[in-house]
Design a protein that fits this description.
By secondary structure, the protein is mostly helical. The protein has one domain. The chain is built from five helices and no strands. Helix 1 crosses helix 2. The longest helix is centred in the C-terminal third of the chain and has 23 residues. It is globular and about 40 Å long. The termini are far apart.
């Protein structure tokens, strides 16, 4: 299953779609989670590290919620003028 998350698709929607595909193909949950869902999310590995280690979809669902919260906070900080000014200042050093 080489499908990747689409831009217009939420992480939750993508995970559900991949879970359904994995279920029809009789692929173990851990394999679907690690090799199909996580690898299909196009984001830095440092952001996705929170998603690893889930053994079932209930666990994974909780990790996805945390991932989305962290991602939202990270990107909102990057968009803030305070973050940009610190980032620009570090480039000048």
């Amino acid at each position: 299953m080489a499908r990747r998350k689409k831009r217009e698709e939420s992480v939750q929607e993508y995970a559900l779609t991949m879970r359904e595909i994995g279920s029809r193909a009789n692929i173990e949950n851990e394999v679907v989670i690690q090799y199909n869902i996580i690898d299909g999310i196009q984001d830095d590995a440092s952001h996705k590290v929170i998603l690893y280690g889930a053994r079932n979809f209930a666990d994974f669902k909780e990790k996805l919620k945390l991932y989305e919260q962290i991602k939202a906070r990270t990107y909102s900080k990057e968009g803030s003028s305070d973050f940009k000014s610190r980032k620009d200042a570090s480039k000048e050093s």
